[in-house]
């Protein structure tokens, strides 16, 4: 049974006014080799909300997520996370902010030479002063949360794709984050395994009360895990609304995407 082990957050939950968005983007642009993939994006995510960003492959969804995480700098515009503008803070403060965020990579991105327990506990080992016994307790609990109890001694190569994704989720929440970022959480998974990941994301949101952004082209996943859905198309946010508003919208680009129809 879960021991509900927690760790202290490195800073207060929100540094700005309580009504302020947890994540705020203003005028974000990003280009690669003269090709603009993000073009003047404004976006806010409120406390406790799960925003799902949908759009076709290659539209810049993952780029947008990396910009939010501070892993990539925009060419212009501002990013504010938990009351801090990323272009106005030093590296130490940025690293402190990253400790307050969990990131689930599309490919799981586990270290092949490390056991699952070592992967999940890596941030705890390097980013906290916790004793090894405390880290073990947290790792075991997080693995239990994602349905991987007893799997900590295995290497990533010994797990299925769905189990590796679960391990990536466990690593993302090991530090008791306030924000979790999901990059295509169900890509490459069969429908049953993907549904299990969707259920897990919902349960972790309810357990941890985190603010989240997920990027996906899987509309079943988007409707299940999201509170609000935004569509990125040709570098712009062309739509933003609740799940119900998304289902009922007359916006042709959104309707075509949901139904899988070509705009041509």
Terminal Cα span: 54 Å
Portion in beta strands? 15-25%
If classified by CATH, what would the architecture of the largest domain be?
A: 3-Layer(aba) Sandwich
Mean pLDDT, to the nearest integer, reads 88
Backbone structural class: alpha/beta
Q: The CATH topology of the largest domain is what?
A: Rossmann fold
Name of the top-level CATH class of the largest domain: Alpha Beta
- What level of helicity do the residues show? 25-40%
Domain module count: 2
What is the N-to-C succession of helices and strands?
A: EEEHEEHEHHHHEHEHEEHH
How many DSSP-defined strands?
A: 10
What about the largest sheet? 6 strands, mixed
Number of continuous helical runs? 10
Principal-axis shape equals globular
Our Rg estimate from Cα atoms comes to 18 Å
**CATH H-level name of the largest domain... which superfamily?**
P-loop containing nucleotide triphosphate hydrolases
> Strand order of the main beta sheet, please?
6-7-8-3-9-10
Low-confidence stretches: 1-6, 8-18
């Amino acid at each position: 049974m879960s021991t509900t082990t927690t760790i202290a957050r490195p800073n207060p939950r929100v540094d700005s006014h309580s009504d302020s968005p947890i994540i705020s983007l203003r005028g974000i642009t990003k280009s690669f080799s003269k090709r603009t993939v993000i073009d003047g994006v404004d976006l806010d995510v409120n406390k406790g909300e799960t925003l799902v960003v949908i759009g076709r492959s290659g539209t810049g969804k993952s780029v947008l997520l990396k910009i939010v995480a501070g892993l990539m700098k925009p060419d212009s515009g501002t990013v504010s996370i938990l009351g801090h503008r990323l272009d106005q803070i030093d590296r130490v403060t940025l690293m402190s902010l990253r400790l307050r965020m969990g990131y689930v990579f599309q490919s799981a991105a586990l270290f092949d030479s490390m056991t699952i327990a070592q992967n999940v506990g890596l941030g705890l080992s390097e980013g906290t002063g916790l004793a090894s016994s405390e880290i073990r307790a947290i790792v075991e609990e997080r693995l239990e949360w994602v349905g991987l109890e007893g799997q900590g001694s295995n290497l990533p190569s010994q797990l299925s794709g769905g189990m590796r994704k679960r391990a990536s989720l466990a690593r993302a929440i090991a530090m008791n984050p306030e924000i979790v970022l999901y990059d295509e959480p169900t890509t490459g998974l069969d429908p049953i395994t993907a549904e299990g990941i969707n259920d897990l994301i919902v349960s972790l949101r309810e357990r941890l009360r985190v603010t989240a952004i997920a990027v996906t082209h899987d509309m079943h996943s988007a409707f299940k895990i999201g509170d609000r859905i935004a569509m990125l198309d040709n570098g712009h946010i062309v739509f933003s609304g609740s799940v119900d508003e998304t289902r009922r919208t007359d916006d042709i680009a959104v309707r075509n995407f949901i139904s899988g129809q070509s705009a041509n």
